[in-house]
Amino acid sequence: MRRARCLAAIVVVGFGVTGVAAQRGSGPRIPPTGTIEKVRENLYKIPGAGGNTTVFITADGVVLVDTKLANNGEAILKQVQTVTDKPVSMIINTHVHPDHNGSNDYFKTARPMIEIVAHENTKKWVTANPRANPAMLPDRTFTDRTTLGKGKDRIDLYYFGAGHTNGDAFVVFPAVRAMCIGDLMAWNMAPLIDPATGGSVIALPDTLEKAMKGIKNVELVIEGHGSVNTWDGLRAYTEFNRALVNVAKVSLAGGKAPEQALDQLATNTKFAVFMKEELLKDLEYGGTPKSRALINLNVAYQELKGEPVTTNVGPRGAAPPQTPAPGSTAPATPPAR
Ligand SMILES: [Zn+2]
What we know:
about 30% helix; binds zinc ion
């Protein structure tokens, strides 16, 4: 029961997967698929309806990174068709959550030859979910690194360890010096951690630091939700997530509460953007940056104590009572790690 409620809370608070509250008229609405925006040259981003969809136009066709919530395929295609006549030729999913692979099926049904690419662990989580849509299953996976295409169409995929889940891919477009980072970075605030699919607050800064070292020549970072950030923005975010874990360790050892750790973190003005107390635009259904920081401090405490993580969607017992919509592709109870 607790687990079911917890998952429902992830759906509403964290991933905005079904917008159940919105559909019932009992909460703010998750924005629909938005208007395509140029990021740089042949690279575009479509916001709304779940995670960002990135559009990379190559000689052979259109590569999509993530496909939003279910039933947004047509809206995505309409946006793509405003900038190119080329067909969708490949889909890369940054991770397993259904607000990122929910509309794979629309494209796969129309063109079964479309290849879906994701990290090996993402395939594992899709396979483990009896309610997953078959089109969420990758046709091709990678473990540490792989390259797709060549020349100006080249895409490099990297994996550096656990964070939001344990299957988060970095998708790099070297020719335009840009990268998709999935939900390792979303809304430029402490990310939601999904322990049910291997996510970890403690591992997150290690993963981000490895990426900062291992990936070269990237200037623009397309977040999993929200806007396009910069490499400097990613550096500041990495430092913030490192500081959060460091403060959690010291505060826990000193017998302090997570709220006291939060106060400590707030003393560093460098991190002010990650500690804002207002809801962000288009995230009215979610939490404030500061509330997310507190959530991740609570998660860090539980991970450090070796406890099962139960606080990743908010304080214990405070999960909203919504349930996923019938037939939704929200993750079913995943197997234990
Ligand atoms: Zn996610």
